[in-house]
TrEMBL record:
This is Elongator complex protein 5. GO terms for molecular function: tRNA binding. Pathway: tRNA modification; 5-methoxycarbonylmethyl-2-thiouridine-tRNA biosynthesis. Residues 328-341 have a biased composition (Acidic residues). Residues 320-341 are annotated as: Disordered. The keyword Membrane does not apply. One of its GO terms (biological process) is tRNA wobble uridine modification. It is found in: Cytoplasm; Nucleus. Keywords: Cytoplasm, Nucleus, tRNA processing. InterPro entries: Elp5 (IPR019519), P-loop_NTPase (IPR027417). The lineage of its organism: Eukaryota, Fungi, Dikarya, Ascomycota, Pezizomycotina. One of its GO terms (cellular component) is elongator holoenzyme complex. Signal peptide: none annotated. Belongs to the ELP5 family.
């Protein structure tokens, strides 16, 4: 697709990229990796994926390591407990075998890869290659990987790095309140605040205003077939009943989408408003110092009356521009013999 030439085309192109992922379009993103943490969970984004997929009669399969509540039409593959990798893969294949188009969601990719030792290549080939379906995996970035007991895997890539390498789209979830606070700090040339475990405070894993109810911020990276990545930041508000058409027939739980309501973050009123600077409560309006940086009128007049070095010499014409002017005082001792030398 040619590059946009104006702002309207740019916005339309950016919305189309994220809309293709949300609506599970074919070949839009075979493997989507979602990164979240306790400050902003990926649940609002996953809910939109499930609702829009069910509205288009797409088979939704959730491989659950953590989830316990599902939509009635969703097929659940339980992966917790003593289930082995071979059993989980067999159940996934059985859930995909009788449908033409499917969406597979794994709610904890770390547990799938590190705990159950599910081979990512085998999982990708099963879902994407064999059944031409879309794979979505959630990775919790605040879960620290366990150190290897043996030194055999010391040089092996970490699970997150391997998943990022394989993913065709990477979406990082952010809290809207935290994004606005970071923007306000940048506008005041202050250090951006840190949240959750990144703050380094003992005992803090989730900060105030986490999981903002107004919506979720999505930092998306789309990887094209040519290898050129495209990065955009979006805002996804909670869906409403008015955003969807009425279901057609008793078997359809959700109607199709009327109009896309995901927008670019720069289009959000709170982000575009310059008053967002006031959200930073950690910084005062003035710099706190032990001395006064200002000057009184008397001090300004004295400063203007100071004659700079070589100021008179610069007024001379010809070759005397570098002549030094010096007036001897009473305390100066003039040595005639040294002057003659």
């Amino acid at each position: 697709m040619p590059r946009p030439i104006n702002a309207v085309q740019y916005q339309r192109h950016a919305i189309q990229l994220i809309s293709s992922v949300l609506n599970t379009r074919a070949n839009a993103s075979p493997f989507t990796l979602i990164l979240d943490d306790l400050n902003q969970r990926a649940i609002p984004f996953l809910q939109q994926l499930v609702i829009r997929a069910l509205s288009r009669n797409i088979n939704v399969v959730i491989v659950s390591f953590e989830s316990t509540r599902f939509q009635p039409a969703v097929r659940n593959v339980s992966a917790w407990g003593n289930r082995t990798a071979a059993t989980i893969l067999a159940d996934i294949e059985q859930a995909l075998s009788d449908r033409k188009e499917s969406l597979v969601i794994i709610d904890s990719m770390y547990d799938a890869v590190a705990t159950k030792n599910i081979d990512t290549s085998t999982l990708f080939n099963l879902v994407v290659m064999k059944y031409t379906s879309n794979l979505v995996g959630v990775y919790h970035t605040d879960v620290l990987p366990e150190p290897s007991a043996s030194g055999a895997d010391a040089y092996a890539p970490q699970p997150l790095e391997l998943l990022k390498f394989m993913a065709t789209s990477i979406i990082t979830c952010r809290s809207l309140s935290h994004v606005l606070a970071a923007k306000a700090a940048r506008e005041r040339s202050l250090a951006e605040p840190t949240f959750g475990m990144q703050s380094g405070a003992e005992g803090i894993v989730q900060c105030l205003h986490a999981n903002d109810q107004r919506g979720i911020v999505l930092e998306a990276e789309f990887r094209r077939k040519s290898g050129r990545p495209e990065s955009e930041t979006y805002f996804l508000r909670p869906g409403r009943d008015s955003d969807f058409h009425q279901p057609v027939g008793p078997q359809q739980l959700y109607g199709t989408l009327k109009q896309e309501f995901v927008i670019l973050l720069e289009q959000h009123p709170a982000f575009a408003n310059k008053d967002a600077v006031g959200m930073v409560v950690a910084a005062d309006d003035e710099m706190e110092t032990s001395f006064n940086l200002g000057l009184t009128d008397k001090q300004k007049a004295a400063r203007e009356g100071v004659v700079l070095p070589y100021f008179d010499a610069q007024k001379q014409e010809g070759g005397e521009g570098g002549r030094i002017l010096y007036d001897m005082g009473e305390e100066d001792d003039f040595d005639e013999e040294e002057d003659e030398i």
